[in-house]
Amino acid sequence: MGEVARIRDVEVTDNGLKASVEFGFACAGLHDAIREEVTDIVRDELGLDDVSLEFSTKIRRHAVQRTLQPLPGVKNLIAIASGKGGVGKSTVAANVALALAGEGASVGVLDADIYGPSQVQMLGLGGQVPDSKDGKTMLPLRAHGVQVMSMGALVDADQPMVWRGPMVTSALNQLATQTNWDDLDYLIVDMPPGTGDIQLTLAQQIPVTGSVVVTTPQTIATLDARKGLQMFRKVSIPVFGVIENMATHICSNCGHEEAIFGAGGGDDIVTDFGVPLLARLPLDARIREQTDSGKPTVVAEPDSGIARAFREAAWNIGAAQAAEPVDHSSKFGPIVVEPGK
After folding, report:
1. Can you name the residues that pair with 267 across neighbouring β-strands?
2. Which domain does 33 fall in, by range?
3. What are phi and psi of 322, to 5 degrees?
C-alpha cells in the first residue's frame, strides 16, 4: 500500500523534539496547521517545549490496471467523471487541478470530452495551438502553471466533431499517449458524462490510478452518478470518493442559504457505496464568471472560501491517491529468457 505520510527522522533531547515528515501528496497549505497541531500534542503529552518539524513531499507513481503500463512522464492519472452532464464536472476538474498545482504538485489536464471540450476556454487558452517538434508528438499547452491538452486546441471552436465511436476513442488515445507530458505528479482527466465509448477506452487502454465522481444533490443526478461509480468498480479502477457540487446557494443580496438542487444525494451515495465525500462545493455566480473568463476561482480568488473548498477537495484526492498501492514496475529491469544452448 502507499503512504499518506511517513516520519523520516526523529531526534529527542531532554527538552525538545526534532522530526522530519515526508508527505505522499501535495499539501503545502496544510503544513502550518499540521505543525501547530503536532506541536501542541507533543508539548501536552510529552512535556517538550522545543519542537522542530521539517516537512517535505514525495509523490510516488501508483499502480494502474494490471494489463497496462503508466504513461511516460505521468506518475498518476486521475479521472474526474460524472453520470450526467450539467453537474459542473469540468469546472471541478479545472479548479482541482489548479489547487493541486498551488499545493506544490506538477499537474496536467487532459480534456477527454472530445465532443464538447471546455478546458481551453476555462483555462484561458483560446486561440493557442500545441507545438510539435518531431511531427509525431505534441507539446502540451500551459496555463496558470498546469500543462493542458484538449481537442478544443486542435479544431476550430465552431467546428462540430461529427465522429462515430471508434474515431472518438482513437482521438482520446492520441491525446493521452502522443502528448509529451513533462514529469507530472498528477494528470487530471476531464471525462465526458456517461458510461459510453470514452469511459470504456479509458478503462481498457489508458493507465488510470484512480477516479472521482462529481454529482449535484439532485436525485436525477445521483442516480446517474451511481452508475458511473459502479462502472469504475467493475473495471477495477479505485474510486477515491464523491464531490457534491452546487450543494447550496447563498444569496448575494440577503445571505439566505438554500439547497436549490435538494439535499442528501451525495450522502446517500457515500453511505450505499462506502466511499468518502471528498467535498461539498457551493453554487455561486463567481465560479461560473471566473471559468468563463479563463481564470478559475482557485487562481482568481485564491483566498476566498470557495477556493478553500476546492483546495480541500484536492487535499482529499491527493491523500486518497497516496494511500493506494505504489507501482514497483520501474524497479525491475526487463526479464529476458534465452533458450538453452
Report:
1. none
2. 5-57
3. -60, -30
Distance CA 137, CA 131 (A): 9
For residue 173, CA distances in Å to 44, 125, 150, 167, 205 come to: 55, 22, 12, 10, 8
Number of domains in the chain: 2
Would 232 be classed as within a structural domain? yes
201 three-class SS: helix
Amino acid sitting at position 100: L
Contact present, 180 and 73 (Cβ < 8 Å)? yes
The beta strand positions in the chain, using DSSP E, are 5-12, 16-23, 50-57, 77-81, 107-111, 141-143, 146-150, 186-190, 210-215, 239-244, 249-250, 257-258, 277-280
What pLDDT sits at residue 338?
59
Looking at the structure, do residues 160 and 19 belong to the same domain, yes or no? no
Using a cut of 0.85, tell me whether the model's pTM lies above it.
yes
Q: Within this chain, do residues 159 and 298 fall inside the same structural domain, yes or no?
A: yes
Residue labelled with grid coordinates 488510470: 208
CA distance 6 to 312: 21
Name the grid cell of 29.
497549505
Phi, psi of 335 (to 5 degrees): -95, 125
Query: So what's the pLDDT on residue 258?
Result: 79
Instruction: State how far the Cα of 291 lies from the Cα of 94, in Å rounded to an integer.
Output: 9
Pick out the chain residues at pLDDT < 70: 1, 262, 330-341
The CA distance from 90 to 174, in Å, is 20
CA 193 to chain centre: 16
Element housing 27 (H / E): none
- Sign of the C-alpha dihedral, residues 324, 330, 333, 335? positive
